[in-house]
Structure formats: structure tokens, C-alpha cells
Give the backbone structure.
Amino acid sequence: MTYKNNIIPELQVRTGPSGAMDLPSVCVFMALGYFLGDKTFYQEHRQHLPASITETDEEGRVLSSTPHFQWHYTPRDIRFQQAVDEFTDIFESIIRERGNEGYTIPISGGLDSRTLLAACESVGKPYRGYSYAFEGGHDETAYGRKMSELLGFRFDSFTVQKGVLWSYLDLLAARNECYSEFTHARQYAFHDQLSKMGGTFLLGHGGDLYFDDMGVSPDLKGDELFRVLWGRIVRKSGFELADAMWKHWGLNGQFRDHLEKELRACLDSIRIDDGNAILRAFKSMYYVPRWTCVNLQIFRDFGPVVIPYFEDRICEFICTVPEHLLKGRQIQIEYLKRRQPGLASIPWQSHYPFNLYTYKLDRAPINLPYRAFNKFKRMLTNTTPTTRNWELQFRGDDNEARLRNELLGSSSFLSFIPEKVIAHHLDGFLKQDALLYYPSVTMLLTLSQFIKLQQK
């Protein structure tokens, strides 16, 4: 059979026999949180590569994979206003062409979702929106509520409750087939409500990747570039877990050497000179297809999905825009100021209380009074707001008991990963440094669900 993947393949296509496990790749999965390239849990079961035409035999084994697009950096001599004009034409064309029955938009306090609102308003597409907040956290639904009051669209708000993950863990594992951990798919907590909303789900994934720089020097390359990449994507406790299992399984050589070889090969495949464009291409080729896109299946349970920033036209456009025009989200900011000045005047969450007209004032000493007020408020209430879903799903007596049972209560899982390895990471999370050990613990939970699925 012949398959053709988009530059960013929103659908996960994996074919081939599920036989012997690919243990070295599973170790990489533990360390990064996602598989690299075409690797999966199994040696002959392969993920079809992005931007490629893949040929398979009758059993799904990959016979060949030929790229039809390669990430590049070919900046044109264009001015900022021209870049904004071109973005506007491409972005609004995508919104106009899709979603014939209207859109449902998840809204945050950032830029990506509000660009979707502005585009729908501009092209006259009907839409509704929703937001969610964490129990015990900041009221992040306030941003969506302000936008709905401004533009007059229907808006719903939800709260992610403590411990809700356990009610849908098995279903979620079956949906993403354990190719991603589970705490990031928090929308599943509102499965029934979102499924009834109707329309096409319009998502802002990728806007922050494609319309900002990567915060490095354009001259970054070689070993220095590799060290930056390693520091950004290799999770310390995940690496520790992977290294322990590499030794336990008796795999050849050292895990560090294997992972370094894999990552250097990924970087070497990118024929770009600018450090920012290289890192963006890496994320587009490996992180986005193998992590971000995995949980898009969750949204497809609710209805059809459109992701404008993942469209081929956007990817091709980005390759030709000079990096200095992408830096600082300036194209999106200018687009919002042009199309919806009211949306631009609503505070930008990452620069609160500043908005898109004043965010450059978010620096000392101007922002010190706001920071001091927030610190005083936390001291007065003696509370720290919940900012991460795993704090709601893994912390607390009931959650910790459920987590311990999931990791230590299955003989099948204990035959895959030794109890002493699990206990070390679980105790590190519960008793020492939760932030440090969360990555390894969430990967252990993912692998425990994977073993459970294999038994079924």
C-alpha cells in the first residue's frame, strides 16, 4: 500500500507486525517522553514518517519511505508588513475553507487561540469556545470569558478536578495506545460535554513553535547546538530510569552513547545553517509528530479537527520568513492588533497584567509592584496555586495510593520493570523531589498501561 503523510502528520499511522519489542527504543521513549523517527514499541512495527510517501507490503512492513518535503531555511528579503499580510492570507484561507458547520475553540490566555477567534470573526465563520482551569489554580477561564463578552460568542468553562484521571485512564490508554503519557490529555475529563458541542474543533497547536524564535544564537552549531538540544529534551529522571532499564535488560554498550548517537543522527539530517531554524525543524520532525500529535486522537473523539498552524501552507511559509521577523511572536501580535484590537487589549497570560500593547513593559522595575503583590497574596493565604495537572492527579493520599497500586500491583508489570527500580522513582516523587521525578513516574504509569493493553 501507499501512504502519504503531511508535513505535520496529524494522524498516527503505524503498520507492520507487533512482535518482538524494540527495547533500545523503549529506553529512548523513557528518557524523552516520545519515540524518535519511525520507532515504536516493536521492532517491525513502524510509524510512517512525516512529509513522506511510504510503501508497505501486505503485512504492513515498510518497504520504502521517500520524503516529499524537507525542512529548510530560505529567508526572503521581505519587510515585516509583507510577512503579516502573507500570514493573514494563508491563515484566514485555511479557516475559511474548513469547518463548514462552524468551529469549537479551546481558549487560553495566550496568543494562539485568540488568533483563531480573530480569524473566525474576519471570515465570518460561526464558532463557540470553552476554557478550563485547574482545581485550586488560577482562574484561567477568565480570559475566555472576557473574549466571549467582547465578541459575543457562546462560552463554556470547566474545572479539572483532583484525581479525575483515574476515571478515564484505561480509555485514554486505549485511545493513544500509550505513545504519550496521560496527564497532558486533560480535555478527556470533559469528554461527554465536549462531545455534545458539535462542529469542528479548531486548535491552536503549533503557533508558539512557528511564530517565535528558539532563543538561541543563529550561529549555534556542532557540539554546542547538541548540548542545548540535550538540555532541552532529555528529562533527568527519565534518563535515569532508561539507563537503569538498559542495564537490567543487558543491552549492548551504554545508554548515553546510544541516545547521543540517535539525537546526533536526527540533527545531522537537518540541512539548515541557522540555530533557531534547526531547533524548530527538529521539533517539527520529531517532537510534534511523536508527542503533540499523539493526543490529537482525543479531540477526534469529540468531533472533526482542524489545526491551522500544522497545515502544509504554514510550514512552507515559515521556511521562507527571516528569523528576525518571527522573534517575539510579533507576526501574531500585529495580526491581532489589525483584526481585533479588543482581543489584543485583553491581558496576555504569560505577561499578566500586561496586554499586547503593553507587554514590553513586563520588566523590572515596572513589573515589581505586581510581583510583590502576588507574593504577598501567596504569603497571606499560605497557598501555592496548582499550575500542573499532575499535581492534581498524582498528589494527595488517594491519588498516591492509586498511583502506587498501578505501578506495584501488577505482576506482569513487575516482570517488565523490577520493583526496586519502580520503588526508587516512586519514592523519589512522593518523598523527595516531585518536580524532578514526575517525568520518570509518569513514564512508568504509561508503560504499566502499555503492559496492561498487551494482556488484553
